[in-house]
Specification:
Elements: E1 3-8, E2 10-12, E3 34-36, H1 38-52, E4 58-65, H2 70-79, E5 83-88, H3 95-109, E6 113-117, H4 128-136, E7 140-150, E8 153-160, E9 163-170, E10 173-177, H5 189-195, E11 200-204, H6 205-208, H7 236-245
Parallel strand pairs: 1-4, 1-6, 4-5, 5-11, 6-10, 7-10
Antiparallel strand pairs: 2-3, 7-8, 8-9
Length: 249
């Protein structure tokens, strides 16, 4: 294996409290801290660990988004990625367009495996990895909690309802990762400084021959309903009575 491609997405930092625009047209992003999608960060960490186990592997981080997405790619470079590619666009990128874009990059890079997070925390779509594998016509292994690569194959352990399932896929393949796979490393200042010298190429959807189609329409964005005030009860009997009155028993 010679190359791993890791797809990352710029999202609102998971520690930030999401605020909805007054007109309900979306989420407020002005002045909000943005970060690498946590699942994609885990995917990158796994790629780096595979590289550090002694294999002569190049790790390439790829993202799609506005010019500021370079910040998240620089974070990926600081973590240890060898180089980065930004497909710059101001358009909203839907899962199918993202998959088509990553495929176009993959055809140029010829990676042995493509890692992605199983989903992004902004839309929770959980579609891009599966779509990418389908249009690339390569095997996929999703929800990975353990990955072992050897002899042109990937052995992936994934959590299912009945317990753990281990599957084996031929490379090249698409692997989407789950939270339990690893814990991403902390980026240190010297690594941030070194990342500034690593190559970060910028291209566009047009240059890759990808058209950003619009298949989804957001009707309205609403904040979650406020939680009702809790009720204190003296004993189990009173708890059961309250639940019955609320129609929960």
């Amino acid at each position: 294996m010679q190359k791993i491609m890791v797809c990352i997405k710029r999202v609102v930092d998971y520690n930030v409290r999401i605020r909805v625009k007054p007109d309900g047209s979306g989420v407020m992003l002005d002045g909000v801290k943005m970060s690498v999608n946590p699942f994609d960060e885990i995917a990158l960490e796994e790629a780096l660990r595979i590289k550090e186990r002694g294999a002569n592997i190049e790790v390439v981080a790829v993202s799609i988004g506005v010019a500021e997405t370079q910040q998240q790619l620089r974070t990926a470079l600081a973590m240890g990625a060898d180089r980065a590619i930004l497909v710059q666009t101001d358009l909203a990128v839907e899962p199918l367009t993202a998959a088509q874009t990553f495929l176009a990059v993959a055809k140029k890079e010829n990676p042995d495996v493509i890692f992605l997070g199983k989903q992004a925390i902004d839309d929770d779509a959980n579609q891009t990895g599966q779509m990418l594998a389908a249009i690339w016509e390569r095997p996929q292994a999703t929800y990975a909690s353990k990955v072992e690569i050897a002899a042109g194959k990937a052995s992936v352990t994934r959590e299912v309802d009945a317990g753990l399932e281990t599957i084996e896929v031929d490379l090249p393949a698409v692997v989407t990762v789950d939270l339990r796979l690893n814990e991403p490393r902390y980026v240190k200042l010297p690594d941030i400084m070194k990342a500034k010298k690593k190559p970060l190429d910028v291209t566009s959807l047009d240059a890759l021959g990808v058209s950003a189609g619009v298949l989804l329409k957001t009707i309205k964005t609403e904040p979650p309903a406020q939680r009702q005030k809790g009720v204190m009860v003296k004993d189990v009997a009173e708890l059961v009575d309250v639940l019955k009155k609320k129609g929960l028993l």
